[in-house]
Amino acid sequence: MQIRKFTWATKSAWLLAKELKSEFRTRYALNAVFMFALTTLAVTSFSIGAFALTPRIVSSLLWLVIFFSSLSGLAQVFVKEEEAKTASLLRLVAAPDTVFLGKLLFNLALLLMLELIVVPLFMVWMNVSILNLGLFLSVLLLGTLGLVCATTILAVIVSKARAKGSLFAVLSFPVLLPLLIASIDGTRLSLEGQEFAAGWGDIRLLVSYLVVMFVASFLLFDSVWSE
Amino acid sequence: MGPMISLEAKNLGKWFGHRKVFEGIRFRLEGRESLVIRGRNGSGKTTLLKVLSGLLRPTTGQTVISHDGKELSPDQRRNLLGMVMPDLELYGELTAFENLLYLSRIRGTRPEKETIRDKIKRVGLEGRGDDPVSSFSSGMKQRLKYAFALLNDPRILFLDEPTAYLDEEGASLVHQIIGFHREKNLVIIATNEQSDLRYADQEIHLGD
Amino acid sequence: MFWKVVLLIWMSAVIAAAFLLPAPQSQLGPASRIFFFHVPVAWVAVLAFLLSFVFSIMYLKTRKLDYDAKASTSSRLGLLFVILATISGSIFAKSTWGSFWNWDPRETSIFILLLIYGAYFALRSAVESRERRAALSSAYAIMAFVAVPFLVFVVPRVYLSLHPTTSVIDVRLQMQMPPAILITFLASLLGFTFLFIWMFNLERRINILAARQKEV
Q1: How distant is the Cα of B21 from the closest Cα of chain A, in angstroms?
Q2: In this structure, how many other beta carbons lie within 10 angstroms of the beta carbon of residue C197?
Q3: Phi, psi at residue B20, to the nearest 5°?
Q4: Does B90 contact A91 at a Cβ distance shorter than 8 Å?
Q5: For residue range B115-144, what is the model confidence (pLDDT) as tens digits?
Q6: pTM
Q7: Residue A78 lies inside a defined structural domain of this protein
Q8: Which domain holds residue C129?
Q9: Cα(A186)–Cα(A188) distance, integer angstroms
Q10: Is C24 contained in some domain?
Q11: Domain that includes residue A207, residue range
Q12: HSE of B207 in the Cβ direction (CA atoms, 13 Å)?
């Protein structure tokens, strides 16, 4: 039997594939995240009615929906392993780096899928037009990446604590606050139709945030994941 | 003779907070030796097994696994060992085949699909390879755990209660597997079953 | 024993000076005296946070539970000082600008520090095993610490876009401090720092005794 050396990327890709397959069969995280987002969106749109909203309010609402929806589902990727007792097997078999990247990519896929549906819906229900699409999408993508990078390690932490419903939210908020502020600001600028250059400060912050969070999470991951 | 595999426990100790589970565990296994860990329920057999395989960090001491005299890194160790334990569950929502396929590739090994099907057959689960593991009985799950543990032809086999959940046929299969494996490799068994004691080249008795 | 007394005398002198010397800022009047307390207390809160961060790293490197105890003690005191800083800042804000809370950058930062400490202890109370609690809270302390610098860049952007008027920080920087004020301020800073160290040691000794008692 050969042991061909797989790279970190390949092994993580296989973990991602397994996560997607599992999720497709069980839909634990998907249901939670989508239903939460749709419900929040509907409530928001309904309660605001025909009232015209400023770009500032719209962008805040959008990111609030994304933030809270992700909280309802991003920890699942680790919590379900602990609950089903499959975590030990994964620990035995997979290198910590593989688990980190694989799970991170899954959460990223989950959030992107969510946004693909929720964002257009949001724009329609809130009756908002995106005047600078390039800036909007850049901020959305970078914000999502940053969110996922920062929350992966928080998700492991929460999965190993007595699952109190609000723990993930309580831990995430202070850490994610810079990201939320920058994303809300950048989104607002894009809705106002300002030039890309105006959003450059926010973009710069989002990029540096995501790099720092990725590195910090990556370095800390093994200390928390291994027993 | 071929390159030798060795496992050495150096003064292993494990505490959970102030509660001591064991301390001062010292032994060395080489080549084709087997170790049996005995003790009452709750004496720490499973904990020791987890420490030896790397699932748990010891509080003191270390486990050194070497191949041909060279100490192995955690990544290398992962590819060399196989483990069957009640605490090690497979993914219920995936089929038997998928479990073995994905897990082996996540580990970084690439057994052929034929090899996987073959191993599933070997443990007596032929025809059930494409059923979700959640539909398996506990005996079938145990057999599947063996299929996975043996998938990468491990040099060290860690077994906790090897014949748990198994009927006579399953138990004799396990004994066959152990017997076969012992011819070239290391086996470490945590057990209370008398019939497993015959494998002991070395023995550790836990819990005063 | 000796140092305790020294600290007592020192702090008494600081408090006396703070009230007896002419007010630091004639524009703001007597309320500006709070500067002698508010700034050092906030500084200690940040120091405690830094210490937590360092002890957390040390724990993860060495796995010695003693470091985790130090991190948690530091955080507990940090929480106390953050609450004091928030309250004192709030009082100052009320007497100066008429409202208790304005979300200006300083206020926001101190509030977030409060949230971080709260989260840290919420996490600790959700884990039973000592080793696990230590590992998880250490990791969180580190992540939180790493996230905080970004706030320095991001919060002003939000605040400035809402309130273009000068914030508290500018007011202070513009202050020219006559020697008496400066000395009192530095003495206060030093005094509160030593207060923190003294309380830290006290808690450590209590914890060690409590741990010893548990063993018996």
Answers
A1: 16
A2: 15
A3: -85, 135
A4: no
A5: 999 999 999 999 999 999 999 999 999 999
A6: 0.90
A7: yes
A8: 31-215
A9: 5
A10: no
A11: 8-225
A12: 13
